[in-house]
Amino acid sequence: MTGIKALAQHLNLSIGTVSRALNGKPDVNYQTRQRVLEAASAMGYVPNQAGRALRKGSTGVVGFMMQTGSEITGEGDVFFMSVFDGVQTVFARHQLDLVALLCSSEEDPDAYMQRVVARGFADALIISATKREDHRIDFLAERKIPFIALGRSETDAGHPWLDLDFEGMAQVGVARLVARGHRRIGIFAPLDDTNLGYVFIDAYRQALDRHGIAFDPDLIFRAHPNERGGHDIAHAIAAMPPAKQPTSFILTNELMILGFYNGLNQVGLTPGEKFAVISRDSPQAHFLVPKLTSFRLSLRDLGITLAEALLATMPAYAEHYPLGVVRKIVPLELVEGDSDMPLATR
Predict the structure, then answer these.
(1) Which 3 state secondary structure label does DSSP give 53?
(2) Is the pTM of this model over 0.85?
(3) 61-164+298-330, CATH topology level
(4) CA 228, CA 69: separation in Å to the nearest integer?
(5) Do 166-296+333-345 and 61-164+298-330 fall under one CATH topology?
(6) How far is Cα 150 from Cα 163, in angstroms, rounded to an integer?
(7) Could you read off the pLDDT of 117-162 as tens digits, one per residue?
(8) What value, to the nearest 5°, has the Cα angle with vertex 125 and ends 121 and 127?
(9) Is 4-47 a CATH 1.10.260.40 domain?
(10) Helix, strand or coil for residue 64?
(11) At the top level of CATH, which class does the domain 166-296+333-345 belong to?
(12) CA torsion angle 123 129 134 135 (round to 10)
């Protein structure tokens, strides 16, 4: 590991010149900057982050807050790992580092956020799993801490956010199933007050109304957003009187699909044969039989957009990303499979 003093001696340059070159200052010519960057890479130069933070009044770190625990992530969560890759792709352009802030499922997210902010080790934050009323948003806005939310909320501080198009998922999913003869369409909703549940239920009700189908609250199934939750929903469906059972299902959580498929097979509601399924896409679902009809998006691209929208609100980086305050619903693409068969084939 090489420090800036050794790097400067190797290049026969002053420490100040090397520092300015590494930080992209305009008073260092292109040839010198390239020479410094190439030597830094070859020698394994690692900046002293503590010293940098003192000099610049910043840490060079952005925190991404997410909740963990078996009830939330089950056996693993590829969603955030793919998003992280996109986020860090952008941050690397500016020598910023992404740090995952893992809030246990047993800890209050508001209290965790307050502790993170009190320690002051991040310049900005990305929050996820936004609630219908989310106190973290007001907390960060009042303290003028740059942040972006992955998910909408009724709490509005004029902050940037990105969210998936759950309304479009409900509209397209319901229309597709109705066209196949289904009128009893079940959906998943979270157990807690995560806002996506409210958004999706509202859009689902509107979609049903558009097709002249009465809303039935018994067709909303609440469970933990993991494989076990999907498995439990399948068994809950089987326990209903046949006339009350849904004949099809729209699953908004990508972690649940493996458990849901498995549970349906166990209770004799074979996906694609006796029961129609549309879900959010998951890498683990690509080898399911029958092939899953799913809503897909590039999670890496989502991470890139998330990072650029955050940097657009930070004065040190805003000139690179003249986007203003980004508040964007990200569309999903329907990829046709064989899991949402017509009702007549049952």
Answers:
(1) helix
(2) no
(3) Rossmann fold (3.40.50)
(4) 13
(5) yes
(6) 6
(7) 888 889 999 999 999 999 999 999 999 999 999 999 999 999 999 9
(8) 135
(9) yes
(10) strand
(11) alpha beta
(12) -40
